[in-house]
């Protein structure tokens, strides 16, 4: 099954986007297959079911064998014994056989065709999909029919060829569920006319449904697929693919972004591959294209075997006396103790093996596809001639799967047919096409594949050694040289995606970013514990190796894509980043990846990148380059990536298509430089990979002569030009500086002038001030009038005012006494100020009389009078001070 990647906050973390919630769905499909005898015996339920082909190669080979057998019988009947024949006679007979084979391949007098294969024709039957319309999901149904299905069909039709069906393709009821349904009774019901009259112009029929059943639609499952019909050569001719419409996320107009659209197509391509033959249930049905025979003898038999999860199960295995030419796909079950040691069953050769079990140096058991083309492609991918084949997942994403249904995530992380679809880089590599070609049913067009950047050309250590070293037992692991650019060891690390197209963060599970729900409640096995904390590690499917596979800062994967111009941000100006079709991600000392325009130069065999208008050359892997940014105002250090990862097509295109060996140490005869090249098994082979199949596009250039620096002035040079050059010679930057200086000048003039301008007074505030001044003058005049109307006039003494506990202003005791004795006015409030709660004070009248008496007996001695008052009236003084 596969997961969709919609937009919005509901999109799940990349490592949980596929196969974590649909294990029950895959179990349901596998259980359903057990009810079909074909999957158990390898024999079609209807022996008469045969599709018509015009001179299928396997029919030609069969007829040639029958002629030889008939000739042998004829000779025996005639009593002819020829133990030795002359070479000339033998050659003549072989020539006659070849001529007869050529005649068999002719069509109505047409010249013989060396290649009967044609692009596969895929027919979609969507009646069940349309029946799921409920008034709210029409846009999603249209999206499946008009976007996902055509995108998937276009890819496979251009990537695979088959011997075309002659006439109509008929569906047999013997391999249908209930003799009516393809795959499951909740999927599509096969129309009666497909059984009786067949489907015209088709080599594969896919029945498309959208059953919302909880058996097949988990919380994040987009689709699940299974094959349900086969021809006489066991090639799948019909299958069912069920979409979970709830997982398709569209906007209000029924559209999705380009990245989300491609994400959905990639999952559909993945699911279709399971129908075509990339499945643990299909390996035992493979045919050998060299002799036109089944790789597995029929009928199948069961045998006990220890699977990759360590559980012993009874599987379909051949008899012990399986011949060398009729080899079961599980015949090679003998165990090797190292990941790089090869051994088949005693009488078998590696060319006849299909799947083989091994035990890695870490102790982990795994299975590998070891068919010839797959093994060659795998060795060319990693530059590891000793490699046994291509490893299948040792952490199976399908329950009860003995070998796994996908390529191993640790070895083939960005591969479209690995267990977890990468959020940024999905590569359908030559490896998957090699597997389908080795099935004996297809001819692959390797130009539709892309060399995976993952581990490309690194060597055997990448395959056989741990991704982090020195980890566990209270210590965090470190990155060995063969892991640089692929793995990481800190959750805070920010780098680039495997294909250097996106900025990404390190995926470390068990820390604050992601919980360990992906792996369940158990911890990694000891050999996979790479951190001080045993509960910390990468995705389980990648053997807990941390990879650059997480987004950050709340952004979606497409918002971190260097190839999308609209992702250019204001902060990117500081580092002179450049987004566009030919931009790549580079590790820098700024703390995260940065996007710069870059080109792979084929003739010079190097990478060039442009920063702030200047081109820099990466001459070797992990070279550091000091670059200036923002016209020299800033700078950073760029680390060059592995050339084999960022420009993989310059190293033996399409892994030599499995038709030769990639010599990574080959020396160019002209320049004397080391230049990897394919050394094909057949020197006359001109197929893709063995000929010069390098295709120049925007990313790849034949040479770098077209790359010229776009010289940018120093940050302050345009400013200097404003003062020394004539305006007619000013650049745009100089005019910008001049405009800025003019604005600054105007602001300075305004600031200076404003200091001389008279202050503007508020009329209302000025009127209020005048009213307050007038009222104060009136009060002073009234006070003088009352003072002059008394019996005697005395010079007023200085009044000493204090503040009471409530904040009110009050006269001091001396002032109070003077005011009373001189006949001045004392308000009642002022008098009340001298009543205290601490000391019983005299009332104003006795106080005034005593004050007058003391004042008279002092004979004009003011100092004595004052001292007398303070001495006798200390309580008032104290109250006044306290108040």
UniProtKB/TrEMBL annotation:
Coiled-coil positions: none
Cofactor: Zn(2+)
Keywords: Hydrolase, Membrane, Metal-binding, Metalloprotease, Protease, Transmembrane, Transmembrane helix, Zinc
Biased composition (Low complexity): 778-793, 851-871
Free-text comment on the cofactor: Binds 1 zinc ion per subunit.
Annotated GO CC locations: cytoplasm; membrane
A GO term, aspect molecular function: metal ion binding
Chain spans, region Disordered: 64-120, 764-883
Any one biological process term the GO annotation gives: proteolysis
Binding site for Zn(2+): 270, 274, 406
Family from the record: Belongs to the peptidase M8 family.
Name of the molecule in the record: Leishmanolysin-like peptidase
Native species: Thalassiosira oceanica (Marine diatom)
């Amino acid at each position: 099954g596969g997961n969709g990647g919609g937009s919005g906050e509901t999109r799940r973390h990349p490592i949980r986007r596929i196969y974590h919630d649909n294990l029950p769905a895959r179990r349901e499909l596998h259980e359903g297959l057990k009810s079909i005898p074909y999957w158990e015996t390898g024999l079609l339920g209807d022996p008469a079911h045969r599709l018509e082909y015009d001179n299928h190669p396997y029919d030609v080979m069969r007829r040639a064998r029958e002629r030889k057998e008939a000739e042998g019988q004829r000779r025996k009947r005639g009593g002819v014994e020829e133990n030795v024949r002359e070479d000339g006679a033998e050659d003549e007979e072989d020539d006659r056989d070849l001529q007869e084979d050529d005649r068999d391949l002719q069509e109505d007098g047409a010249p013989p065709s060396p290649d009967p294969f044609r692009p596969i024709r895929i027919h979609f039957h969507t009646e069940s999909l349309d029946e799921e319309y409920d008034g709210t999901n029409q846009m999603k149904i249209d999206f499946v029919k008009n976007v996902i299905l055509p995108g998937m069909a276009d890819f496979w039709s251009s990537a695979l060829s088959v011997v075309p069906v002659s006439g109509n393709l008929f569906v047999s009821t013997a391999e249908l569920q209930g003799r009516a349904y393809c795959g499951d009774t909740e999927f599509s019901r096969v129309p009666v006319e497909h059984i009786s009259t067949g489907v015209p112009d088709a080599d594969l029929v896919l029945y498309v449904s959208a059953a919302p059943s909880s058996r097949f639609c988990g919380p994040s499952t987009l689709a699940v697929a299974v094959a349900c019909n086969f021809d006489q050569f066991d090639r799948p001719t019909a299958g069912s693919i069920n979409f979970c419409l709830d997982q398709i996320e569209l906007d209000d107009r029924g559209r999705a972004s380009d990245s989300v659209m491609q994400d959905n197509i990639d999952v559909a391509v993945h699911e279709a591959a399971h129908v075509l033959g990339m499945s643990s249930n299909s390996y035992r049905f493979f045919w050998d294209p060299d002799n036109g025979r089944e790789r597995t003898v029929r009928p199948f038999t069961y045998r006990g075997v220890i699977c990759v999860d360590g559980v012993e199960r009874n599987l379909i295995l051949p008899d012990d006396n399986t011949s060398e030419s009729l080899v079961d796909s599980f015949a090679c079950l003998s165990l090797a103790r190292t990941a790089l040691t090869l051994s088949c069953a005693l009488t078998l050769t590696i060319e006849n093996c299909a799947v083989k079990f091994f035990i890695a140096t870490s102790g982990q058991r795994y299975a590998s596809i070891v068919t010839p083309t797959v093994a060659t492609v795998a060795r060319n991918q990693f530059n590891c001639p000793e490699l046994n084949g291509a490893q299948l997942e040792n952490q199976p994403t399908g329950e009860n799967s003995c070998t796994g249904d996908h390529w191993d995530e640790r070895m083939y992380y960005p591969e479209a047919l690995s267990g977890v679809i990468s959020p940024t880089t999905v590569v359908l590599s030559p490896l998957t096409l090699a597997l389908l070609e080795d099935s004996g049913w297809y001819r692959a067009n390797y130009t539709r594949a892309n060399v995976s950047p993952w581990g490309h050309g690194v060597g055997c250590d990448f395959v056989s050694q741990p991704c982090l070293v020195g980890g566990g037992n209270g210590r965090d692991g470190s990155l060995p040289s063969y892991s640089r650019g692929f793995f990481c060891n800190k959750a805070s690390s920010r780098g680039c995606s495997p294909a250097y197209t996106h900025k990404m963060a390190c995926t470390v599970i068990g820390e604050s970013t992601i919980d360990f729900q992906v792996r369940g409640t158990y911890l990694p096995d000891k050999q996979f514990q790479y951190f001080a904390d045993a509960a910390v590690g990468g995705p389980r499917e990648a053997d807990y190796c941390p990879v650059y596979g997480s987004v950050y800062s709340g952004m979606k994967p497409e918002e971190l894509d260097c190839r999308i111009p609209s992702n250019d941000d204001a902060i990117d100006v500081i580092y002179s980043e450049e987004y566009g079709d030919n931009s790549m991600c580079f590790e820098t000392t700024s703390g995260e990846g940065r996007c710069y325009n870059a080109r792979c130069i084929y003739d010079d065999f190097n990478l060039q990148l442009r920063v702030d208008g200047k081109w820099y050359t990466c001459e070797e892997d992990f070279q550091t380059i000091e670059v200036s940014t923002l016209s020299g105002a800033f700078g950073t250090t760029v680390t060059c990536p592995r050339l084999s990862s960022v420009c993989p097509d310059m190293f033996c295109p399409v892994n030599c298509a499995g038709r030769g060996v990639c010599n990574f140490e080959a020396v160019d005869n002209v320049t004397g430089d080391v230049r990897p090249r394919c050394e094909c098994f057949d020197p006359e082979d001109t197929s893709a990979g063995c000929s010069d199949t390098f295709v120049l596009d925007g990313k790849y250039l034949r040479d770098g002569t077209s790359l010229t620096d776009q010289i940018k002035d120093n940050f302050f040079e345009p400013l200097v030009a404003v003062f020394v050059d004539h305006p007619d010679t000013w650049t745009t930057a100089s005019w910008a500086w001049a405009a800025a200086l003019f604005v600054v000048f105007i602001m300075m003039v305004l600031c200076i002038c404003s200091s001389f301008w008279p202050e503007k007074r508020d009329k209302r505030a000025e009127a209020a001030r005048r009213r307050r001044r007038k009222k104060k003058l009136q009060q002073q005049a009234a006070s003088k009038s009352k003072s002059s109307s008394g019996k005697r006039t005395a010079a007023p003494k200085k009044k000493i005012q204090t503040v009471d506990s409530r904040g009110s202003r009050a006269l001091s005791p001396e002032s109070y006494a003077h005011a009373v004795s001189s006949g001045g006015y004392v308000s009642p409030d002022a008098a009340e100020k001298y009543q205290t709660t601490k000391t019983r004070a005299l009332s104003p009248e006795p106080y005034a009389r005593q004050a007058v008496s003391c004042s008279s007996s002092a004979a004009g001695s003011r100092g004595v009078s004052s001292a007398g008052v303070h001495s006798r009236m200390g309580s008032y003084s104290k109250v006044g001070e306290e108040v």
